[in-house]
Amino acid sequence: MNVLLAAKSTIAQAQQPSQQSQLANPLINQNGQDIIYLGMGLMAIVVILVIGLLSRRMEYAIVFSLILAAVIIVLVTLV
């Protein structure tokens, strides 16, 4: 029984990265996050505009679904 508990605690410690490794991880570019969000927003706007030029009803459906998704995301994050 003690061996099983010791193995579980060893696995749990191995799965939790230290705070120092999280703060100094050179593979994660924290500065580029804002640029990615900006690019995603611009891409969504361009897609809506292109579809709007092709079909007005499709544009309304996409705008409605984006607004509905945003409302659901806000509600889920508040709860």
CA distance, first residue to last residue: 39 Å
- List segments where confidence is low: pLDDT < 50 over at least 5 consecutive residues: none
Radius of gyration: 22 Å
Characterize the main sheet. Answer: none
Number of strands: 0
Number of helices: 4
Compute the average pLDDT. 74
The coarse overall form would be: flat
Percent of residues in beta strands:
under 5%
Order of helices and strands: HHHH
The residue fraction in helices comes out at: over 70%
Domain count: 1
Structural class: mainly alpha
Question: Would you kindly provide a written description of the structure presented here, covering whatever features stand out?
Answer:
This protein is an all-alpha fold and 79 residues long. It has one domain. Helices cover 81% and strands 0% of the residues. It contains 4 helices and no strands. Helix 3 runs antiparallel to helix 4 (56-78). The chain starts with a helix and ends with a helix.
What's the topology here?
Layout: H1 2-15, H2 19-23, H3 33-54, H4 56-78
Features:
single chain, about 80 residues, mainly alpha, about 80% helix
Brief sketch in words of this structure:
The protein is an all-alpha fold and 79 residues long. The protein has helices at residues 2-15, 19-23, 33-54, 56-78. The radius of gyration is 22 Å and the shape is flat.
